[in-house]
Amino acid sequence: MQDEILLGILQSLRKIVSLLSDILKQLKRPHHWIEGFLISKQGGFNVALVPVAPGFSPVYTATPIPAGAFPAPGNVPTWTSSDTTNAPVTADSTGLIGTVAIPTTATVGAGFVLTVSYTNADGTVATGSLSQTIVAAPSPDITGFTITQTA
Question: What is the largest CA-CA distance in the chain?
Answer without folding.
Answer: 114
